[in-house]
Amino acid sequence: MVKETNENNFDNDIKDGYSVVDYHANWCNPCRMVAPVIEELADEMRDIKFFKVDVEENMALSDRFGITSIPAIYLYKDGKLVDKIIGALPKVNFKRWLSENVQTA
């Protein structure tokens, strides 16, 4: 399940473990293509938290992380940025990216 987060609770939401954040906007067609892929990954990869952030409603977060193109998918560990992907990709690419960047116990 992908949860909505915002400027008020972002830091608390991503502070522990791995978190994937999908920075998007409602008018963005590539963002709409990526959204169901992120939902599927959230259902499959339960050890990772998944969030989405509407960049137009949370401009301070967009500025803070230098979001200039969307969709932007960022991976955090314990609140620190690990890696990011910009643009719409097939599910297999996102899954490979996560498996390369997430160390499981």
Brief characterization of the structure:
This protein is of the alpha/beta class and 105 residues long. It has helices at residues 10-13, 29-44, 59-64, 91-101; strands spanning 2-4, 18-24, 49-54, 72-77, 80-86.
Explain this structure to me?
There is one protein chain. By secondary structure, the chain is of the alpha/beta class. The chain has one domain: Glutaredoxin. The protein is built from four helices and five strands, in the order E-H-E-H-E-H-E-E-H. The model has no long low-confidence stretch (mean pLDDT 95).
Low-confidence stretches: none
- What does the radius of gyration come to? 12 Å
Characterize the largest beta sheet: strand count, sense, and whether it forms a barrel. Answer: 5 strands, mixed
SSE string, helix = H, strand = E?
EHEHEHEEH
Estimate the helix proportion, in percent. 25-40%
Number of strands: 5
Number of domains: 1
Shape: globular
Oligomer: single chain
Number of helices, counting only DSSP H or I runs of 4 residues or more: 4
CATH domain fold name: Glutaredoxin
Name the structural class: alpha/beta
Please report which band the strand proportion falls in: under 5%, 5-15%, 15-25%, 25-35%, 35-45% or over 45%: 25-35%
> What's the N-to-C terminus distance?
22 Å
Averaged pLDDT: 95
